[in-house]
Input
Amino acid sequence: MVSDSDVLEFVPKGLWIGSGPVEATGGGTFDVRNPADGTVIAQVADATPEDAMRALDAAVAAGPAWAATPSRERGEILRTVFEQLTARAEEFALLMTLEMGKALSESRNEVRYGAEFFRWNSEEAVRIHGRYLNAPSGTGRIMVAKQPVGPCLAITPWNFPLAMGTRKIGPALAAGCTMIVKPASATPLTMLALAKLCSEAGLPDGVLSVITTQRSGAVTGPLIDDPRLRKLTFTGSTEVGKKLVAASANRLLRTSMELGGNAPFVVFDDADVDAAVAGAMQAKLRNGGEACTAANRFYVQSGVVAEFTEKFVAAMADTVVMGPGTDAATTLGPLVSEDQREIVRDLVDDAVAAGARALIGGKVPGGPGWYYPATILGDVPPTARILREEVFGPVAPIVAFDTEEEGVAAANDTEYGLVSYVFTRDLDRALRISEGMESGMVGVNRGVISDPAAPFGGVKESGFGREGGTEGIEEYLNTKYIALT
Output
């Protein structure tokens, strides 16, 4: 049986730079808290701008040798990380639950999902292809080569402490890049543990560094301004993403941005309502609703809205068990922080004040921990903020619509465009609606779509670039044209 103390003991508490953990310049630290009760579970190093430069120095020094390492060898190291991460799945799952709060079942799913980015990219490493052809003009030959972009900076969020890092680290390392990861200050432990695991799997010193800090802008700013850094990849809010893109513009730094979402979940009259409810439970409650892919707005055609709502409420009442993520019976853990709970509460209170009805949940419970119950809102008016803002919690607002055109228009009425969900039994309609959705991804009759073998990313203010699939590794490769006689 894995214990909390054993798991926390495995995690290095210093910055991971070069060959292992080091103290922050000046010796600063910050607390990591358990969302289930607010207690401090660890203290980790609080990096300074000087520490960021140390990490970049290490990445630059290790870069040429790593890029020259045969792709098969890079792939084998990634495969070893996958195997070791899988072998220690329970430890990593418990660690994520302790620092982020999600139910252990959710954390186990994340370990499986996150580890797969190492296996997938271990296979992609040997499939980085260029091309060679005779110029159509007959004046020479064209050779196209793919080369690693160079040192990369990854800034990752708190909601998936492992997977949001592995789907950046995996392709970067497979492509021959070195990488610095700055994890969210709320959940730094999992990424520090992963860096240690990568080192144990044979990853050379300096190829992967992890810098933990509470002062993200002050620490990452000098990295973004340094001409040695060649790539920035970020997952987080659109607000922060815009600032990072603006900061990167001074050097035309290559960037990829996986930003906010406001996913519509559209149920048509001809849908299998039971399947739609099952999909809604997945799309809303996966990761406790703290996911950019979480269904945020439920648009249900008038012919089935009463049946769908009744069954959705019953499903939540019958299956959701709120409690500490470490309890075996828990299916819904606490939110990551008190601030996040207040954001969710404000959005629900605003909707109710505007005329929405809380059909289940809707009230903050007493006692310790940052809990918010699974909540369904009916009769949500179009003016409610919850239809405009990403709720990032276990709250489902339901809105009825009449015609297909109205449903699609409502779904697309947002500045975001990450993912959309569509439930219908009509294949023609499914394809028509999917093509009409202004989003980078569409789930048809399913509530979970993320897959390491598929390209993940959005359009509009949900960002640009793709992670996963054969497209993911392209984000870390430059294309070079060589003209031959």
Remarks:
- The radius of gyration is 23 Å.
- The CA atoms of residues 248 and 349 lie 38 Å apart.
- The first strand starts at residue 15 and ends at 17.
- The chain has a mean pLDDT of 97.
